Amino acid sequence: MKKILLFLITLSFFTSLFLPNATSQANDGTDDAANLQAIRAQTLADVKSFSCDAVTVVPVSECEALVDLYLSTNGAGWLKKNNWLISPDISTWFGITVTNQHVSVIELYGNNLIGEIPATISQLSSLIELCLTSNQVSGPIPDSISQISTLEKLSLDSNILSGSIPESLTSLPNLSKISLGHNRLTGTIPASLGDLTALTRLEIHDNEISGELPESLGQATNLQYLIIFSNPLEGNIPLTYINLIHVTDFYFFKTQLCEPTSPEFISWKALVGDGWNGTDLICMDYHCYMPIISR
């Protein structure tokens, strides 16, 4: 009995060294909350200590939009924030590119942004690329993004965005890339996206996008990548998509989309080749919206 007791005491001692007890786990949660509160307080202090009036390399309104982004996404907690709200030369701020005295690129990939995109993002009137991929950006995609007529690349994938894909994106004539995959987006694919004649890449995979595919998307004839898998989409793939002759990658597996059997459609599928990754569901005919055969 003494040996067993000694063994249990020894085991308990070593367990306490390597495994956290319930008290320490509770403290961990408290510490996390306190740490987040401290980061928010520091973010606010950083913002209050900086004035865009001293900035000369870009318009004050563009500086203010960047400050708003820092404030709304807990900038003090970013992994990298070199020179943000320190130097008046915005071209030296981490992830910012300035071209012809305007902010042209925001590249903050995987930088621990936590919060929402501010509506004032629209003040960046010469922005070409917005990349906030792999962060914890939440809330809806602000409609104000559609006011940045120069925007070519919108990369917001791998975040926790909610709401629907804005119809207003169609007002961005130069938009060539939309990457919104791996979020919590709902609603349907806007029919207006078919008006984006410059669009070459559309990624909306791993969301909760539902409904049928819009026929109008077949008008976006420069599309090369159509990545829509892992969504509750249903119905047939519209025959208008045979106009997408530049598509090299069409991923729609983990959906309920079916394939028409018309010769034109089969020829288009062959043209896509190895980049075709679908459901293997065959539609009754191109008028039918329910698959009846699984190959």
What this model shows, in words?
With 295 residues, this protein is α/β, with parallel strands linked by helices. The protein has 2 domains: 29-154, Leucine-rich repeat, LRR (right-handed beta-alpha superhelix); 164-295, Leucine-rich repeat, LRR (right-handed beta-alpha superhelix) (Alpha-Beta Horseshoe), CATH 3.80.10. It has helices at residues 2-18, 22-48, 60-72, 263-272, and strands spanning 96-99, 102-107, 114-116, 129-131, 136-139, 153-155, 160-163, 177-179, 184-185, 201-203, 225-227, 234-236, 249-251, 256-258, 276-277, 281-283, 291-294. The strands form 4 sheets. It has a 9-stranded mixed beta sheet with strand order 1-2-4-6-8-10-11-13-15, with no helix packed on it. Residues 1-26 and 286-295 have low confidence and may be disordered.
Percentage of residues in DSSP E strands = 15-25%
What is the count of distinct domains? 2
Global Rg: 25 Å
Q: Quick one: overall form?
A: elongated
Gross CATH architecture of the largest domain:
Alpha-Beta Horseshoe
Widest sheet: strand order? 1-2-4-6-8-10-11-13-15
CATH topology of the largest domain: Leucine-rich repeat, LRR (right-handed beta-alpha superhelix)
What is the straight-line distance between the termini? 67 Å
Regarding quaternary structure, what we see is: single chain
Order of helices and strands: HHHEEEEEEEEEEEEEEHEEE
Helix content: 10-25%
Task: State the main characteristics.
nine-stranded mixed β-sheet, alpha/beta, disordered C terminus, 4 helices, Leucine-rich repeat, LRR (right-handed beta-alpha superhelix), four-stranded parallel β-sheet, 295 residues
